[in-house]
Write a structure and sequence with these properties.
single chain; 118 residues; 6-stranded antiparallel beta sheet; 6 strands
């Protein structure tokens, strides 16, 4: 696990930043391995909505999603996609923006308590 950043030529493929978001108050259950389970769909939808709100002020933000969940409280492997405009947008600035948003909202993304973004 961990975070990664995929850099591409300006103006071509979007920039995708991946990160692990630890949801401290959630308890991992086996249904979070199944992307078609009601709990997976509900939790992924909630997390995606909140990440979209957190990053919506960036004019190059295209969207976010959840790739998977894993144990450790609940760790969500998420991705955030940006239009690649050749700017200084990179993994570090995206993660810092998300961390600042969470910090300014009492350690939360909506109703989800986040203990770590890596």
């Amino acid at each position: 696990t961990g975070s990664s950043c995929e850099m591409v030529d300006a103006g071509s493929t979007p920039l995708t930043v991946s990160a692990d978001v630890t949801l401290a108050d959630e308890v991992f259950t086996g249904d979070l391995y199944d992307m078609y389970s009601s709990r997976y769909i509900m939790l992924a939808g909630m997390l995606e909505r909140e990440m979209n709100m957190a990053l919506s002020s960036n004019p190059f933000f295209l969207g976010s999603g959840v790739g998977s969940f894993s144990p450790g409280s609940v760790v969500a492997r998420v991705w955030m996609m940006f239009q690649n405009n050749g700017s200084a947008l990179n993994h570090t600035t995206v993660i810092a923006t998300l961390q600042n948003y969470i910090s300014s909202n009492g350690g939360k993304l909506g109703n989800l308590t986040v203990s770590q973004v890596a």
